[in-house]
Amino acid sequence: MIPVTTLKDKNVALFGLGGSGLATAQALAAGGARVVAWDDNPDSVAKAEAARIATADLRQIDWSAVSAFVLSPGVPLTHPKPHWSVDLARAAGVEIIGDVELFVRERRAYAPDCPFIAITGTNGKSTTTALIAHILKASGRDTQLGGNIGTAVLTLDPLKAGRFFVVECSSYQIDLAPTIDPTAGILLNLTPDHLDRHGTMQHYADVKERLVAGSDTAIVAVDDTYTTLIADRVERSGTKVVRVSRRQPVIDGVYAEGARIFLALDGASRLFTDLSDIQTLRGGHNAQNAAAAIAACLAVGVDEDEIRAGLSSFPGLKHRMQPVGRKGSVVFVNDSKATNADAAAPALSSYDRIYWIAGGLPKEGGISTLSGYFPKIAKAYLIGEAAPAFAATLGDRVAYEISGTLERAVLHAAADAEQDATGPVAVLLSPACASFDQYKNFEVRGDAFVGHVAALPGVTMLIEANG
Question: Global pTM?
Fold first, then answer.
């Protein structure tokens, strides 16, 4: 845990007692703050009380005595309308912050030289975060990984000199971190997302910009209009900007040409590495992720050979284009995290011949946007509630069967793939759907896929079957 001592002896109100909220309350209490916490869910309040966190309905407290209000990132700050607790804090003139802001204040106060890499973007941030942490750990550096990737930042080991922190940041977390100041900040891309919470695309982009604007080195992927403008604007403000791209050369930065990654300085470029043989970094989107990771690791002093070694040994992000088994020329790939069509596109673009397992609880729009990848699909195996609708979209353009269950889909896809004489093929779970019709979440679905693959005769597993 990172005790939050910068609010020692201060009265702090906190709303939102899910996993990160409860962890934040405990970190504040451990640092000596007087915390009073609340949640709209009585079960969450009960859990906090069991953890010896003081609770009270924030509508009944004296806000004039409160020094700071800590809001969990899942609670609306601005749109569609501010949560009632936000209105109370604003009316009292109390600052509203989140757990990432508490972390950066602790870092400034007690370990300002502690390397801090923060990553954001609409897509790819989890893979990039995991890749950077892996490179650092593989090089022998003391590394902590957390944030939006699943481990609350204040539950990480305490700040100290020489300890590296790699933190994935959602737009919600950035919105509650007004003084975020990473050693290296990464912005990967911007496409419309979470507009129900940000109101407009411009506001969403403005929030994301704050992360790189406060960085010592801003690493910005300039493959869309919003990020290109942000890179220019941040550079004009005096911040060092390293541009990365998967689509075009850059004058100063890191760029990809297919699977080859180049370093550029003053317009002169040289080959840094080739990702062709790294199965966990297939596809143009991963070339962008790798380029950003390379730039960040260089910015915090990692040696080039250490970076190349870390790239080569990267095991991949669990449930995201994760090769899990192999039998002859067939590779089995777990992309359970692809819970909508846009998220499934990278995996479909990364393999030339695919036995595709898709379906689950359908999202709006279905899979019609994936039609450009249909020629790559040898056959589709449709599961869950979405199966009839997906079958209608595939029509006579793609051979398919309605398998119903994931287990049956794996069995049939594996049998068909083994008979394919065209060369390397992938049995790909990339559902383009939520999991909730058949599984608790996409992680449970992905683990089930791995288990079904492990049960196939003759398959060499590339990961542990239990995840």
Answer: 0.85
